[in-house]
Amino acid sequence: MAKKIKTFRPKPRVPKGLRDEMAADVIGQRKMLAAIAHVYELYGFDPLETSGLEYSDAMGKFLPDADRPNQGVFSFQDDDDQWLSLRYDLTAPLARFVAENYDALPKPFRRYQMGPVWRNEKPGPGRYRQFTQVDADTVGTPSMAADAEMCMLMCDAMEAIGIERGDYEVKVNNRKILDGVLERIGLNLEDPDNQVQRLTVLRAIDKLDRLGEEGVERLLGEGRKDESGDYTEGAKLSPEQINAVMSFVRAGNEARSAVCDQLAAIVGESEIGGEGVSELREIDTLLSAAGYGADQVVFDPGIVRGLEYYTGPVWEIDLTFETIGEDDTLARFGSVGSGGRYDGLVERFKGVRVPATGCSIGVSRLYAALKALGKTDESGARGPVVVLVMDASETAGYQTMVQELRKSGIRSELYLGGSGMKAQLKYADRRGASIVVIEGEDEREKGELTLKDLILGSEMSKDIEDNKAWREDQPAQVSVKRADLVSGVRSLLDRYKGNENL
RNA sequence: GCCGCCUUAGCUCACCCGGUUAGAGCGCUAGAUUGUGGAUCUAGAGGUACCCUGUUCAAGUCAGGGAGGCGGUACCA
Question: Is the C-beta of residue A327 closer than 7 Å to nucleic acid chain B?
Answer without folding.
Answer: no
